[in-house]
Amino acid sequence: MLGGGSGDASARLVLLQGVSLLQPEDAVFDAMLEGWTRQQRGGRRLQSKTIGDRLRVVERFSEFANAYPWQWTASDLDDWMTHLIGVVRRAESTIRSNQGAIRLFCDYVTSPHYQWPAECEERFGTHPVQICHEWNTVAHLVECEGRPGRGPMTRAELQTFFDHADDQVERAVRIGRKGALAAYRDATVFKVM
After folding, report:
1. What is the CATH number of the domain that holds 51?
2. Residue 186 is part of which domain span?
3. Is residue 132 part of a domain?
4. Cβ-count burial of 108 within 10 angstroms (0-12 exposed, 13-18 middle, 19+ buried)?
5. What is the pTM of this model?
């Protein structure tokens, strides 16, 4: 592979041209991952953790499908999702995040701007396709997908909380002890937030 700047994400800039590869499938897949890393780091300015998490998802999916990106099909994604939901029992948000990583990677390797379709067609006689579609991916339908105890407070819960904060102010004033000013400050800050 050729070392270039972070914006050098196209197939021609990541793969050495005119060189016979001993294991072309592995080398091209590794070059795709390197190019995608450069693309995310370069123009998109994503953090290393985000990039690393996405790369691991793509690698896990490729391992599960036992295929390279130019061989992936939508049914491979369906099988993986069935495995993650039924066997591994991943949360809905994790499923969507994994699908998002696969979708973004497929967007990258199918884009003619990065030349991977032409490179794969020339080397393997086929090219990568987008396998994530609206009918086989999870839609984001609710604002909070976490466990119910971890979700945002409802309006009724907020009102109860604010009433309690106001009661603490009144209690401190009524018994004539220190803390009334601090309780008033806390109640005000909570309401402003």
Report:
1. 1.10.150
2. 151-192
3. yes
4. buried
5. 0.71
